[in-house]
# Entry
Amino acid sequence: MPTRDPFAPSPDDRFTFGLWTVGNPGADPFGGPTRPRYTPAQIVDLLGEVGGVYGVNFHDNDLIPIDATDAESKQIKKDFRAALRRNQIKVPMATTNLFSDPVFKDGAFTSNDAEVRAYAVQKTMKAMLLGKEFGAKTYVFWGGREGTESDATKDPVVAVQRFREAINYLCAFSRSEKLNYKFAFEAKPNEPRGHMYMATTGNYLAFIETLDHPEMCGVNPEFAHETMAGLNFVHHVAQALDAGKLFHIDLNDQEIGRYDQDFRFGSVNYKAAFFLCKLLTDYNYRGMKHFDSHAYRQADRGEVKAFAAGSMRSWKILEDKVARFNRDRTIQKLVRQINRSEKAAAAKLAKRFTKTNAKQLMALPIDKDKLAARKLPYETLDQLTMELLLGVR
# Structure
């Protein structure tokens, strides 16, 4: 009997793709499409051929073109629903395209034009209802045009206030219609705008606490976006985890300082991808793992399938590396060594502040020179990590 591939994905892994990711036709700012545009149903069938996919996500206009007639919309939804059923694929997340149409040239929720802001909220409400038709439970907000090229054009304080007003309205709409959505905000430092108002995940974590319903709002960090700004993506995800706000995550890859490349997950930053996988594994993240990326411009349909399969396989391989790291005796001995816990000091630090506890801690004899002399074998630990990742350990 053939041996089962240990890195083969299954729906239990909760891997998802977007209609806009595997359906990307290969166009870029300097050239048109290099492969056919597939219908939503054809994209679902392609993912069914790949196998192991849990779900497919969509913007409203990925599924229904912005100028579609009622009859066209009805047929598209019928075909899409049939494809989901025959491929046993779900729709866990939906979102709104508030960036492509010329009406959003100066933003959606932060536009200087009140009628544009009203249209953006209207369009989002309709898209939320569309997502719920297909069972979506998470609603992502990426403010692709929520920014500026010149601060002469927009008051940044007013812009944030406008954004808050829109989100509060949409939270109320979701509650009123019993849609039961969890909202997840996706940050990006720039592109397509010169500067975005919500540039990092941390910006959104602070923003959420100012909303009327912070309990229903979290974040959707994207690997490429924080990396574009030269930041450590793992640290931003860790902050979201600690806050209980990691509602969704976008996986891809990116080179620092470049345009938004949306490379296949694990194709550039092996080490960062490993530590991200380790973080989510160690902290038992059970949400969707969404691949917000696309195949190379040179890819044909077969290569698009290879791209999708490779995205999931890379995660599974890294999961195996995480398990090896966590059971490697030499590595774990070093981990224990560098995470010291002297009983007397730990006992004092573990307590909540009281005047008595503070007095005891103040009186604790601590030899700073002895502490400074303690060995921290970080070079060794990092080298062993590299050897494990490269397959020689």
